[in-house]
From TrEMBL:
Keywords for this protein: Nucleotide-binding
Full protein name: Molybdopterin synthase sulfur carrier subunit
Domain of life of the organism encoding this protein: Bacteria
Family membership noted in the UniProt record: Belongs to the MoaD family.
The keyword Nucleotide-binding is annotated on this UniProt entry: yes
Length: 85
């Protein structure tokens, strides 16, 4: 069984990866598994989402840890940390 999540990218990630996409994953996948699957696409995705980069995630517009579970139809957003002054 699989799930399909809607992907959104913001700020510098949007510039590199586009605004939106979808991803099909095994049922029971986590945010971390989704990130790994995206990095496996290679080049731009691997570089932009590399584990050495600070990247935040949100599921259905709520901040989420890498261990958060995903469900079919969820929106998963990735963005760099935001700083302000």
């Amino acid at each position: 069984m699989t799930i399909t999540v809607k992907l959104r990218f913001f700020a510098s990630l949007r510039e590199r990866l586009g605004e939106a996409d979808t991803l099909v994953l095994p049922a029971g996948s986590t945010v971390g598994a989704a990130r790994d699957a995206l990095m496996a696409r290679g080049s731009a995705h691997a570089e932009a989402l590399a584990r050495s980069r600070a990247v935040r995630a949100a599921v259905n517009q709520k901040m989420a840890a890498e261990t958060a579970s995903l469900a079919d139809g969820d929106e998963l957003a990735f963005f760099p940390p935001v700083t302000g002054g």
